[in-house]
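$ ./design --mode recover --in tokens.txt
reading tokens...
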């Protein structure tokens, strides 16, 4: 694509100028006329977290493209996760992101439209407070702008984005481990870890890959991106895959642990979210809506604490991290949480919990991302139609806001590329 054409593309200029108003999220009133390059294109999105769901949602307004979303998890949401308890049927915990803030105007505008359209998202109106653990002082949290929460569950937001259009199909419990590209057909194929093959994709978007040390031990797409780059190089097919691989090598994430607790008590808690300052272990306690008469909450540990330990026992343990069994980590976090609850609710009786379950997040928040993604808000190879993105591409790093905007940036890249002739133009 020539530079002149590139700069003339209105969609791309939106990405360059953050003050430009976004295209409406309202369903298109009349059928859009589409260039031939857009018709019948099969788009594959790996990952049904915020980034992948946002990419699928924004792409689905294109007529005549089909979008297939794959995820290794049992359902959509990724780190905006909801865990349904086996021991307490009907009780669920938002044990990943509890709610999130939006700081920039573009994100707020997209999110407000989603709230308006009831796309599984609402405003978080809970009472947020701060506890200084060293002095015991409690105060209201500062106003940090609008806060959002999935409704009724945290992952309902991704669920709603993905089911907003029948052109999006969803496949779960499939871990994709290999990508290949057929230069003759100009199509991608993907393979899962049980040798299932999904073929015929004109575009592939990979979200949240290789973002965590522990996750990287079990699965990631980074090795297969390297293999793809090597095979394209060998066959003399022009591509930017090596640039993408190098950019991804800069992604680093922090770990965290969350503890799900349910207490058979009617005690009223004086906050909905308590941010804890000056505590080496506990960073936040989030109270969930009461379920089956139980006081349900999720305690989050500090990043500093989480990063000291690994729950992966040898031989898969992580160098430089101390191994601690999950029960021990859960015990410490529970003790700390109950200490804080007793402090802020001195007259309430706190019985033993009927549920106490730890979740370890190997890669919870991206803390370093590639410079290469700054301008475009995602990583993109326009030679073959391959995009990579996630919460590591944009500000604030490691947030739902950056994942949402990255998904939208990927969708715009794909749309601009297809409108310019896509792979046909790139191959000339
Ligand atoms: C405990 C916790 C608290 C948080 N608190 C906040 C907060 O307060 N505010 C905030 O803004 N953000 C918060 N975050 C961060 C926020 O959740 C993430 O930034 C955001 O959800 C990332 O979205 P994503 O789509 O980039 O990645 P993900 O949600 O990780 O989505 C990636 C998806 O890809 C799938 N996948 C990966 N590899 C493969 C493969 N090979 N095959 C198939 N599927 C694959 C994964 O299963 C996952 O579903 C928190 C995160 C955690 C864990």
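writing sequence...
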């Amino acid at each position: 694509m020539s530079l002149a054409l590139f700069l003339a593309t209105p969609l791309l200029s939106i990405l360059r100028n953050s003050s430009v108003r976004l295209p409406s999220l309202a369903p298109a009133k009349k059928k859009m006329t589409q260039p031939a390059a857009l018709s019948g294109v099969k788009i594959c999105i790996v990952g049904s977290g915020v980034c992948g769901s946002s990419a699928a949602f924004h792409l689905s307004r294109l007529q005549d493209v089909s979008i297939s979303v794959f995820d290794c998890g049992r359902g959509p949401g990724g780190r905006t996760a909801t865990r349904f308890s086996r021991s307490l049927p009907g009780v669920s915990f938002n044990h990943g992101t509890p709610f999130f803030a939006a700081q920039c105007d573009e994100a707020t505008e997209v999110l407000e439209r989603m709230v308006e359209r009831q796309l599984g998202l609402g405003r978080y109106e809970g009472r947020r407070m701060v506890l200084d653990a060293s002095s015991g002082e409690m105060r209201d949290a500062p106003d940090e702008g609008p806060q959002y929460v999935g409704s009724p569950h945290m992952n309902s937001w991704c669920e709603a984005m993905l089911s907003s259009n029948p052109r999006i199909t969803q496949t779960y419990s499939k871990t994709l481990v290999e990508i290949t590209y057929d230069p003759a057909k100009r199509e991608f194929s993907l393979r899962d870890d049980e040798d299932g093959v999904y073929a015929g994709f004109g575009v592939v978007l990979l979200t949240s890959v290789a973002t965590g040390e522990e996750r990287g031990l079990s699965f990631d797409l980074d090795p297969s991106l390297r293999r793809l780059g090597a095979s394209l190089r060998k066959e003399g097919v022009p591509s930017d895959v090596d640039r993408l691989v190098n950019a991804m090598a800069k992604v680093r994430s922090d770990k965290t642990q969350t503890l799900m607790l349910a207490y058979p008590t009617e005690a009223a808690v004086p906050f909905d979210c308590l941010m804890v300052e000056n505590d080496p272990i506990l960073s936040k306690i989030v109270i969930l809506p009461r379920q089956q008469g139980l006081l349900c909450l999720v305690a989050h540990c500090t990043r500093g604490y989480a990063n000291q330990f690994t729950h992966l026992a040898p031989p898969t343990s992580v160098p430089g991290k101390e191994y601690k069994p999950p029960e021990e980590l859960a015990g410490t976090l529970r003790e700390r949480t109950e200490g804080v609850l007793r402090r802020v609710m001195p007259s309430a009786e706190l019985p033993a919990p009927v549920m106490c379950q730890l979740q370890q997040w190997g890669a919870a928040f991206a803390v370093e991302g590639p410079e290469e993604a700054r301008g475009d808000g995602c990583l993109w190879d326009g030679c073959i139609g391959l995009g990579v993105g996630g919460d590591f591409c944009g500000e604030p790093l490691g947030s739902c806001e950056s994942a949402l905007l990255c998904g939208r940036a990927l969708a715009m890249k794909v749309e601009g590329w297809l409108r310019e002739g896509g792979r046909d133009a790139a191959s000339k």
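exit 0
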